[in-house]
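TA notes, week 10

Several of you asked for a full example with nothing omitted. So below is the full record: structure tokens for the whole chain, then the designed sequence directly under it. When grading your own attempts, check the secondary structure regions first.
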């Protein structure tokens, strides 16, 4: 993470220090660097591998028991591309993630998440660093990609039920002048709650909808992987 401030790192002369409190939040705010994006993607690949069995078990209850396998397959293919991604800027890295998910993940999640990362890449185009507002815009584009692809509304027991409250929480935090770490943490927490809140929902989109009433009582696997992806972003923004 890079902090805005004196780019030369000059020592502060406290006798002459003038603090403009109006600008303090912005001046203090962190920026997401290209290196942070790489860290986020590496962490996501690790966390999805660690949760491969858990996500697959969730999908066994209301789908075809492959969501963890799908996500791990996609992010393993992305992991293989990390060396070539070193030379890329933020947008090109996110674009590579999106196109790799589309081409390597057979299930619904591949094109859905693929479109999400491709849309996020569009927000980052030409930017060397992302501000808090850029990160919220990226999250909005990410959700927008999933909705454009899958046409799900909130309440249909999909990844949209994690990402919609996450975006709302992030927007509110941004409006309140919260730091980047707080914005992404509040988004991840809202996504985790949103994923839990899919348990009583009836699935009306995707494979789980074939189960009808029997889909009730189970947590949606896609909402869960969305919350993991956002928790990885929050951890990166917290400097972990
Ligand atoms: P598949 O259903 O093809 O086996 P996965 O198991 O990888 O694919 O992904 C299932 C997840 O995809 C679901 O848990 C749900 O969150 C998400 N999903 C399915 N259809 C949609 C849709 N139309 N819109 C948003 N998310 C969807
Ligand atoms: Mg499945």
């Amino acid at each position: 993470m890079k902090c805005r401030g004196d780019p030369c790192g000059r020592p502060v002369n406290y006798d002459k220090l003038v603090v403009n409190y109006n600008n303090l939040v912005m001046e203090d705010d962190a920026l997401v660097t290209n290196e942070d994006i790489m860290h986020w993607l590496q962490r996501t690949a690790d966390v999805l591998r660690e949760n491969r069995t858990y996500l697959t078990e969730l999908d066994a209850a209301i789908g075809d028991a492959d969501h963890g396998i799908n996500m791990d397959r996609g992010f393993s293919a992305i992991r293989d591309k990390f060396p070539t991604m070193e030379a890329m800027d933020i947008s090109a890295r996110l674009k590579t993630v999106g196109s790799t998910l589309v081409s390597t993940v057979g299930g619904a999640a591949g094109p859905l998440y693929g479109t999400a990362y491709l849309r996020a890449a569009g927000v980052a185009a030409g930017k060397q660093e992302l501000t808090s507002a850029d990160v919220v815009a990226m999250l909005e584009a990410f959700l927008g990609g999933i909705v454009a692809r899958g046409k799900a509304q909130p309440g249909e027991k999909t990844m949209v039920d994690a990402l919609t409250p996450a975006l709302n929480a992030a927007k509110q935090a941004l409006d309140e002048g919260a730091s980047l770490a707080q914005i992404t943490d509040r988004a991840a927490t809202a996504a985790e709650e949103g994923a839990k809140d899919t348990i009583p929902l009836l699935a009306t989109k995707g494979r789980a909808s074939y189960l009808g009433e029997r889909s009730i009582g189970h947590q949606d696997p896609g909402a869960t992987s969305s919350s993991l992806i956002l928790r990885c972003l929050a951890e990166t923004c917290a400097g972990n």
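Residues 67-85 form the longest helix (19 residues). Use that as a sanity check on your answer.
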